[in-house]
Design brief:
Layout: H1 2-20, H2 27-42, H3 46-67, H4 77-116, H5 119-125, H6 130-167, H7 173-181, H8 186-212, H9 218-247
Length: 249
């Protein structure tokens, strides 16, 4: 029963995406809406990303120092471990799990509200491809801005560890900076950017799909937002496993 329902929903999602990815009728309107969505979904998420990354970077550095305190382990390992944890997982996977709650619920509730108030039906009656008109700018805008959020996350997380070194005596500042630079692998940065693009696509499209097919009233809109966050999080974790195997083998 669950398998059948999942296959049915996947087929419905694929049909939905064929409408979303159609060519826009008016490119000027599309670009205007895309800029608006970049501001709403991307730029407005920067404060949240900075605050979370600052604290997580600090916590990672503190835990690394407390758990690897040994004369056999070089002191620069704190910076090295903090850098690799941030580049490989936190700046893309964990960040997108957090953004699935903020951005995904926003998209699902917005489109779901438009569905229950019959605004989407009005667009369809006027001959407008409502899925393309509403969802494509959100998808393109969020995917376009996602690498910027990842860059902010990486920089702020490193800064968080640096501030721990400045305001505490857990580890020397010079050794932390040396650890960040030691054995640097440029591919880890590109790996994080590539994964974040896939995750941004999942967040935007799954949330839009959940909101677009809402039936009922305000209660169902809330349920759609919850389903969007849960489904996006599961798919992000699943995709993370697959991409890690493909990109780091």
């Amino acid at each position: 029963m669950i398998l059948t329902k999942s296959i049915s929903q996947f087929g419905k999602y694929c049909l939905f995406m064929t409408h979303v990815c159609a060519r826009p009728n008016r490119w000027g309107v599309f670009f205007q809406r895309t800029i608006f969505e970049i501001t709403k979904l991307g730029v407005d998420s920067i404060p949240l990303v900075i605050i979370i990354s600052l604290f997580i970077g600090s916590v990672i550095a503190i835990q690394m120092q407390l758990n690897i305190a040994s004369p056999l382990i070089p002191s620069y390992s704190v910076g090295l471990a903090t850098r690799d944890i941030v580049l490989l997982e936190f700046s893309n996977s964990i960040l997108c799990l957090i953004l699935a709650g903020k951005v995904g619920s926003n998209i699902a509730s917005e489109i779901g509200t438009m569905r229950v108030t019959e605004q989407i039906d009005a667009l369809d009656i006027m001959g407008v491809n409502s899925a393309n008109f509403l969802v494509l700018p959100k998808m393109v805008g969020f995917i376009f801005f996602m690498p910027v959020l990842v860059a902010f996350c990486i920089a702020t997380s490193m800064l968080g560890g640096f501030l721990v070194a400045v305001f505490t005596d857990l580890f020397p500042i010079s050794r932390y900076i040396y650890g960040i630079q030691a054995f640097f692998n440029e591919w880890y940065v590109w790996y994080g950017f590539i994964k974040s693009l896939f995750f941004a696509y999942i967040i935007a499209t799954v949330a839009a799909f959940c909101g677009y097919y809402v039936k009922g009233g305000a209660l169902e809109v809330g349920k759609a937002s919850t389903n969007a966050v849960v489904t996006s999080s599961i798919l992000i974790l699943l995709t993370d496993v697959i991409l890690t195997k493909l990109l780091l083998q």
